[in-house]
Amino acid sequence: MGTTPTYGLRYQDVTDPPNGPLLGRNLAEDVEAQIKRIDAAKPPQSRRAYSVTTQTNIGTADVASLTLSGMVFKAGWAYRASVRGMVYGTTNAQVHFRLRKSNASGADWGEYGRVTCTGANPGNGAMVSGSLILLRSAGTDLTTDVALVVSASTGTCYVFAGATSPRYLLLEAVGPAADYIGLGVDVT
Question: Which of 67, 100, 166, 177 could pair with 135 as two cysteines, CB 3.0-4.6 Å apart?
Fold first, then answer.
């Protein structure tokens, strides 16, 4: 049997004895293997969680601000987790934003930093935005919830949102995990 130079699809060569059923089966199996390879290379779907409602009364304990339910981290892929929001509340309180597996007490996947509240109303709020890299280097997919967690160093804070200014968490595939080793957290 001969094979094509690019994809290695088997075909009946001129010196091979005729065997239509074997030729058909081999070609079908080879095409199916290539389709599987192409399907596996498709980038995973982006996911988002957002709200147009202000989150109120955040104290010093970690609370989930937004949760992305049932996120599928595909084996061998890297993801960018981006956030946006605006905080206000007790003046000079440090508001801490973290990404965790599952919920407010899940495994810590990284922090977006601390933002200082500059006043007690949205008019003098402080913007938080940033991104983290998450990797799935394992050979299997992982399905889990992802929580954006918020807490204040003191007092009470709020994460503002409105119709034209939603707070959000966005996870998008950025490429092979191997290209991002050392730049992010390996999710397990």
Answer: 177
- Please tell me the distance from the alpha carbon of residue 188 to that of residue 186, in angstroms, as a whole number: 6
Run of H or E including 153: none
- The domain of 6 spans 2-41
Is 85 in the same domain as 129? yes
> Where is 31: in which H helix or E strand?
helix 20-41
pTM of the full predicted structure?
Answer: 0.78
Read off the pLDDT band of 113 (50, 70, 90).
confident
Q: Please state whether 10 falls in left (phi above 0), alpha (psi between -120 and 50) or beta.
A: beta
| CATH code of the domain covering residue 61 | 2.60.120.1340
Please check whether residues 12 and 58 belong to one and the same domain.
no
